[in-house]
Amino acid sequence: MTNQVAVLGARGFIGTAICRRLGDVAFEAYKADALEWLEPSYALVIAAGRIVRNPASYADEAMLVGDVVHACKAKTPNYIVNISSDAVYGDDARSPIAEDTPTKPTTVHGSSHLIRELLLAELGIPLLNLRCTAVYGRSDRHNSYGPNRFLRQARAGGPVELIGLGPEWRDHIFVEDVAEVVALALDGRPTGVLNAATGDAHSFLHVASTVASLFNVELVCGKGGGTVALRREFDIARLRSTFLGFTPTPLMEGLKRCLV
Fold this sequence. Notes:
By secondary structure, this protein is of the alpha/beta class. The chain has a domain at about 5-140 and about 175-200 and about 235-250: NAD(P)-binding Rossmann-like Domain (Rossmann fold). About 35% of the residues lie in helices and about 20% in strands. It contains eight helices and eleven strands. The two termini are about 30 Å apart. The model has no long low-confidence stretch (mean pLDDT about 90).
């Protein structure tokens, strides 16, 4: 692994896990202006960013990316790992989704991630875009629907609340797995695109039921939501072939690790 790694977004949910995994080689950069300390001997991990849903959050994302691009032009890192999102594929992508699936974002959030990828690629620095599926873990701060919200509700004594009957299937990856993939990338220096996924999709009903059972709290089904079991699945053959020996954490094991 490279001797020094600047982690932008080190205090965030994913950034914290990455710094914990990298240990002493990680230089924690909380804001883009901290990247003035970048040197060619550094690699850069971009784990900063917000869920973009409105003009204000989009403006914040645009400013962040602009600052990062400016810093990288001035103090060129030797390698970049960009934490991106599977939202770049859009909601209508055909499963199983692989790295060569066309990027057709259907949300502002997905579009912002794709624009970030394109702007970073123009720098000409060796770049890996790590497109993560829904990331879960104990210290999540976004309360996104799925494992993170279910875990928060269960810790508060329940009930765990589904939207509708929860028939939709999604791939959820444990945050420590994302950190491990980043560490492996810094060691092997692959470039291009990799999907950070488990290859196993689960229905929201299954995830919510599992969390409720682990915490021994009530599960309730709310109004709304879909009635069709739409499945968003991923082909992780490239991830496995790039990092031989890497095995994603099964959902049940990851959820149990969130208990402590």
